[in-house]
Amino acid sequence: MKKSKILTSGIIRENPLLVMLLGLCPVLTATESIMNALTMFVAVLFVLFFSNLIISALRRFIPTEIRIPIYIVIIATLVTIIDLLLQAYTPDLSESLGVFIPLITVNCIILGRAEAFASKNTVVDSMLDAIGMAIGFGLACLVIAIFREFIGTGGFTFANPFDSEMKVVWTPLAQYAWPQMVQGTGGFLTFGVVIGVFNTIQMKITKNQIKKAKLLADSQKGGC
Amino acid sequence: MKKKLSKYILFPVLLGGTCLVCSCALAGVSFMTHDTIVANAERKFNKAISSIFPQNASQEDVDISGEADLDPSILKVVKVKTAEGKDALAYKLTTVGGYKGPIVFAAGIADFKVVGIRLVNGSGEDGLGVAAFNKFAAAVSTESAYVGDNFDSLTAAAGASAKVTLPLVEAALNAAIADAASRSAEYEVTVEQDSSDIQLFHSKIVSGEAYGNMSADIKVDRKTSAITGLTITPEDAAGENNGYGFKMLDGTAEDAFTTKYVRLPEKGLKFTLFSKAPAAQPDDFFPPEAPITAKNYYSLMYETVKQAKALITEITTVELKAGTTDTYVVDHWDKNSYGNMNADVKLDVANRKVLDVVFNSYSAFPYEGNEFGMDIINKNPNGSNPSLNEFVKKYVVIPDGGLSFDLFLAIDDPLGEPVDTELKTGATYTATGYYVTVQTAVKEALKGAGN
């Protein structure tokens, strides 16, 4: 498979959230705000990148029978490392995401990619896959977060992740805010709408592609 | 051909190796981030203090490391001078338990009222519990302070309910209020030596609370670890509850607290009555008739006894018993009351033998847990503690020919920490007291004999 295809497949065609519907639990909390979404993206990128890297590098030495416990130990270690780093250097974001950072350990995206991709492919391919998947996850989270934060708070708040005192608050529509959107209900609602829109677009693109292919085939037939 | 390693060996080795490498990596990262994480938590608590007492003039940590009786929900205490110049206290508190785990929070106390609460760390507790806490915290302010008996009305007004979390928060806040009351009081305790046995303390409490100021002359008998004289002078103009507080202080009130803790019995008020910190006492300990007076009286006695215990170490007197030439009366007292005793020790100096030990008094009393000590006094070598039985057989039960002086001179400093000696018996204080008593007599006899 082409390297570029590996990288991009996770972003659109095999988007872990919107297409494969993997790792949905943290999305509810991670998409409350753009800052949370970005932090979760960084955490998932870190864990996915290094777990894919380590597992693909060690794939020949890991016996099939004990591969899952070894993957879990490696993933749990990486998650604990990112959790400690977030607690130390971005404490407010760490607290805001709470238990969902440790829960990355059992996130299906990570274990799924380790099992389905990293254990069968080269290190470079696995790294590209990790980057693509993480970007796909991050973009989906970001889109959901933009809607949720804007509707839920009437604007956006951006803070320096290393110093939450330094922040820019832009909430021109605060008086029209619908706080339910930054609660669980809003998460489900927005997620459903985004999946619906994404799949509709995907279907239209696929239909167009089929239509184009048919037209091309017809024109080729006519030409003969 | 290469022989393959059995999977029963290979798999554990691989799993163990993976775990080992991962542990090392985690240890490294944990070491690297630990200090920063601790500093973050501290910064968060300080931020909470600043939020409760905005623009406070100063804050200073109170050293609570030596306070063994401190309520377990109190993690840290900070003295704060508010922007208005008032003294206040900020507490870092934790719920002891929780639905899933503890909540760590900051509480600001001024004028014995909780004027602000902020969450410091709720990651251990269930989300609903934390949400209820936050609702309650938002309802507490200077204008709507928690004063110790309005928890339900505040939570109801805030719409906060969490059956497990909130009662624990209430308990932690009550502990902080009680601690603040005892901490904000100022004590003056001076000691005047009366005699070798009796000491007179002049104690005073300025609590800042109405009905909470008083001074006292307290006579302490170091030998019996008891208060044998007590004169209290209220420093407030009026007595709490239409003068009931005054009745309590002069011992004429009839409630259980006055009877047990104020009125002086013939043998005095034992130190043990005042050994527990006021904040550690249960809610209903101080009588409802005059709770402020009772609390401050108890606090004053607690402080005095604490100082008395610290000042008094040990005293041992010895003299030849009247009308005898071979029996010494030894009176030994030390601050560990189970070692206090008075005994007649009969000696045969010429043959360097202890012939008999007769106990005249023993200050401690038999109770559940002190049966070991009583085995020494009763000279019982068949008690339930094997090491004590050995001690009794070797040092207490005296055979016909007597026990050698050398046995009682072998331990140089029995009152020092008897870590490796035979005095460590399970009734160590009594055993030490007994050993010192006999040793004192032996040394006195040898002195008299010119040895």
Overview of the structural elements:
- The complex is a heterodimer of chains A (224) and B (451).
- Chain A has 224 residues and is mainly alpha-helical.
- Chain A is 67% helix and 6% strand.
- Chain A has helices at residues 3-9, 25-30, 34-58, 67-89, 91-97, 108-118, 123-153, 184-223, and strands spanning 156-160, 163-170.
- The mean pLDDT of chain A is 90.
- Chain B is of the alpha+beta class and 451 residues long.
- Chain B is built from eleven helices and 15 strands.
- Chain B has helices at 7-52, 127-139, 151-158, 165-184, 240-250, 256-262, 291-311, 371-377, 386-396, 405-409, 428-448, and strands at residues 58-62, 74-81, 87-94, 104-110, 113-121, 186-193, 198-206, 214-221, 226-234, 269-270, 314-320, 327-334, 341-348, 353-362, 403-404.
- In chain B, the strands form three sheets. Chain B has a five-stranded antiparallel beta sheet with strand order 1-2-3-4-5. A five-stranded antiparallel beta sheet of chain B has the order 6-7-8-9-10.
- The longest helix of chain B is centred in the N-terminal third of the chain and has 46 residues, at 7-52.
- The model of chain B has no long low-confidence stretch (mean pLDDT 84).
- The chains are: A mainly alpha (224), B alpha+beta (451).
